[in-house]
Amino acid sequence: MQKDFHYYATYCAAFIAGYSHEESLDIAYSAQFVDLCSRTLLSKLKAPLSAATTQLQLELMNARTDLVGLQDITRIWASFHFLPGDLRAEGPEKAGRMYRNKYRLICRPNGDLVKDTVDLAKGGSLQAAGIAMHVLADTWAHSYFAGTPSLVINNTNNYFYELFPSDTGYQERLVDFHHSPGSPDDLEKGIYNNSIYQGSENSIMNLGHGRAGHLPDYSFIRYKYLPAWGNYEEIIKDNPHDYYYAFCQMVYALEFLRGLIPHFETGRYAIQAVAPYEEEIRQILEKRQLDACADWKALGEKLSGETVEDFDLNKHQAAYMALPEKEKNNSFLGRFFLASLAQKSMVTNKIFKSGNLLAGFSVDYAENGFAGIRDFFKLIEAFAEEARHD
Questions:
Q1: Do residues 168 and 285 lie in contact, with contact meaning Cβ atoms separated by under 8 Å?
Q2: Whole-prediction pTM
Q3: Cβ(327)–Cβ(41) under 8 Å?
Q4: I need a labelling partner for 148 at 20 to 30 A (CA). Which of 4, 56, 295, 304 fits?
Q5: Residue 9 carries which DSSP code?
Q6: Are 267 and 161 in the same domain?
Q7: Cβ distance 243 to 140 under 8 Å?
C-alpha cells in the first residue's frame, strides 16, 4: 500500500472508530512513518537502529545476502510489511526445510500474527496503534508474497494479466512489465515497473512483491498470475474487494484498541460502522489512478470537518533531537521507536519459536529478560518504568 491508504485512509478509519481528529492524525502519521523509518533516518536522529521498519533502495542494494544479512532483511519486512499468514503451513509435498520455511513466511490476512499484532498494541501508544494498522493493512495488499528474498516464492512469469470487469465477467490484458526506475506506471497502456529478474534465489530483486511491481499497492487493480509455489494454480487478486475489507478491519481493530470491543478476533469487520460511507469509499478504491491521496484526504475532512494536514516526514524530528536522552522515550518518535522494537521482537520471536530461523534467533524478553541487541534495552527500561507506575 501507499501513502494514500496508510496515511489518509488510516485517518478516516481512526475517526470512524471514534478517535479525535488529533488522535487520528497521530495514528495515521505513525502508520505512514512505517514506510519511512530507515536506518539512514535513525542514524541522522541518533536513534536505535534496530527500530528500523523499512529499508531504502540504496540500503537494500548494499545489504548482505549471506545468512546473517538475509535474517536482518527478513526481520524488517516480515514484521512490518509481509506479516506471515501461517507459520506452520505444510507447503507442497516433499518440500525441503529451507523452501518450507520460506513458504511459511507468505503473507496473508487474518493469520494468528494479525491478532498478535493488534493485541500487542492494546493499552499502548497511538504510535503502536498506527504501526498495527500499517501491518494489518499490508496483509491484504501484499497477500501471496513474502518478506524475505526468494525467487521461488516471489517470482512472477509471463502469465500475468490485468482484469477489467465486464458484463460477462472479466476482460484480460497481458501486463507489460519493465524495469525503468523513475518512470511512472502507464495505466492506459498497461505498462508497469518491476524489479529486474535475477536467477539467484536470495537476490534482493526477489524480495516481497518487487517482481510484481506496484500492482499490489494500487487499490483499483485486479489481476491474475501463476506463482512458482502455487502448483500452477491461478491466483486472482481483487484489490478493490480486499482494500475495502482491509479498511473495515482497521476500523474494527481500532474500536478494539479504544476499548469499545472486549476482544479482537480475526475475520471480523466493522461493516456496519463503515456502511454510511461505503459508496464513497468504493468509488475511491475503484478509481484508476496512481495516487488516491486527494480523494482520501477529502473524505477525511468531510468526516471530521477538520483540515487533514499533509504528511511531513520532518514534523517530529527536531523535537526528538532536542530532548535529553532520558526524555526521548516520551516523545512522539520515541514512542514510535519503542512500539516498532516491540513489534519486531514479537514477530521475530514467533517465527523463531515455530522452528524457522529465517528471521534469526530470538529471546522472549517478556519471559526471559534481556539478551541480545543493545537497542532493545529501551524496551526493558520502558517496561520497568511502566511497572513502577502500575
A1: no
A2: 0.92
A3: no
A4: 4
A5: I
A6: no
A7: yes
What are the cell numbers at 136?
A: 494489518
Shared-domain flag, residues 251 and 106: yes
Q: What's the number of domains the chain is made of?
A: 2
Domain range for 128 is 3-148+242-281+290-389
Residues 208 and 142 sit within 8 Å (Cβ to Cβ): yes
Amino acid at residue number 56: L
Average pLDDT over residues 85-96: 83
Q: What residues contact 248, with CB distance under 8 A and at least 6 apart?
A: 269, 270, 271, 274
Q: Tell me: do 253 and 124 sit in the same domain.
A: yes
Asked whether 284 and 292 are in contact (CB, 8 A), the reply is yes
Q: How is residue 281 written as a grid cell?
A: 469509499
pLDDT tens digit string along 242-286?
Answer: 999 999 999 999 999 999 999 999 999 999 999 999 999 999 999
Helix locations, the chain, DSSP H? 3, 10-16, 21-33, 39-45, 57-61, 67-80, 97-103, 112-121, 126-141, 151-154, 239-257, 271-274, 278-286, 293-304, 317-322, 332-353, 365-368, 377-389
